[in-house]
Model the fold of this input.
Amino acid sequence: MANLSLKHVYKVYLDGTMAVSNFDLEIEEGEFVILVGPSGCGKSTTLRMIAGLEDITAGDLYVAGKYANLMEPKDRNMAMVFQNYALYPHMNVYENMAFGLRIKHLDKTSIDNRVKNAAEILGLTSQLEKKPKDMSGGQRQRVALGRAIVRNPSVFLLDEPLSNLDAKLRASMRTEIKRLHNTLKTTFIYVTHDQIEAMTMGTKIVVMNKGVIQQVDSPMNLYDYPCNMFVAGFIGTPQMNFFDATIFVDETTLKLRLGDNLLSCPLALFRKLDLLEVFQNPNVKLGIRPEHMRLADESVPNDQCLLVNVNLVEALGNETVVEGTIKGSEHQISIKINRNDLIKEGSEIKISIDFSKIHIFSKETTNSICPRIPTHNYLKFSNNLFGKKFIFPKKLFDALSEYKDLYIEFPIDAVIKGDDYCASVLSCELTNQGFYLLELQLKGGQILFAVSEENISAGDYHFSIKQENISFYNHVDKVLSSIPRFNHVRGKLVPNKRPVLTGKKMKKRKVFDYSILGVCIRPNDESVNKIYALLGKKFHLHDIDFSFSPDDVSIAEEGIKATLQNIIKYSDNSIFGVFKHDDVDIVVKLESDSLNIGQETHLAINAEKIKVRDVNFDVIII
Ligand code: ADP
Done:
């Protein structure tokens, strides 16, 4: 079981500052987790909510499996170490470490044992008589750590503990803290704004920006597979270069236009590239790290090089950083080159690019469109794409027959173990989301990504595809939609005075119901309290996006009035009904096809399963 679990946690300060938004994280016992991001991104607030020093506005915190939002800080068995170590100046090291234990009335022998043990771990045994003023910054920080260790906590919370130290001391204390974690084998949560500190210390790094988690990953994955431009720019020095580029793809080649330059490389280097996104939005942001380029010799073809006018040459000793402008564009570029490459400011140089290391981002969302874990497959369709005739209801196939340039698109988790088709396993890698990513090669050569619960070794893989998750495209235009995973309906929260469980008491107070397509649905008290905590008394002014899966709506005696428009039957016997209420479509998984098209009925939504997103704040509340 996770030692700490944060589920959809929000913090809104009294002045309205949304410091932390939808923070979702599981921390296993003994993990070393780092929260990193620029100043003001909500790291300390998160740490303080975990410690119990700050109220949680909405969302849930569990400590060792127990609901802990309201747990007293002292009952959480956590110890915090701050940037300013706040040692008592009049006490010596021993007394500083012993003080907290004395207050807890621990007996003398236990205190002595714990202090001496901590001093031993931290190399402070010979310093126990010293006063803080006679010690260096590093030693004082060690005493502050000692004060935490003697408490024997199950979680250490460290808030920028090294930022008062000079660079050299910081580097040695980093090693010290890692060693301490190895010795104590306790959960550490460490906050820093310094990406180098994060990369060198953590095994699980949480990158935050503006109160929102951007990516949770290992240092290597953050560097190799940043999920968006923020993470890409935050990790690595000098920063990744970003350029506006236009992308063209044919069967085998990927071409990039960058100012006057046209670069070309094998498409096989980009197996995870989201081709649908590229076809729809060929104008992208290209990311290249300075260390993934080098001086090219004359023999390198022009379509693999950039010409750069050199503005500045910075020799750093073991390497040299060149700042320049890409010829035929306004783009500034940083390049790390070998210290022996002699380059003059004002000259023109030819640079080759390691295409296997480039990054491509959507200009619109700034998200990577060649991510480590692709979200969906997009494949050129033919009847025997999967090695044998594709099974799909004839009625749906007939609807598609008029299109020539058909593509098929479905999420990677729509590929399930089964016996319809077969492909060969190219790779199987464990993701940080608890599943394996399978890369499969179809008989015709196309690549298919799938998820697997278990590690799959090389060889044949037998699979089926969840048909209701498939969409068809005529190149980039959607011609047949999959069954949506969620129905989305715009609605409001409407006041309703009734008793609600608030804290431990039932209190009659002004709360609200969900108003969805003219019907009031009563949420449970926990949901009411969460939404109320975030939106406050003006809840009725907010626009709400209610969403619910087709599995969570059913035909009922009363509820939302709707007319059946269409029935879709798949060959795996699942049946879906598309209903209309005014101009809103609602898709429902049906037990049978007993209703007739055009028939009016009522739909009931399972209130417990409704997801709530505040449209004005753009936050998912439940
Ligand atoms: P970080 O630790 O990443 O530097 P913080 O968690 O300290 O960030 O702050 C996150 C945001 O919350 C910032 O915009 C900060 O100004 C704001 N903030 C922090 N404490 C308070 C407070 N007590 N009242 C109002 N706003 C606050």
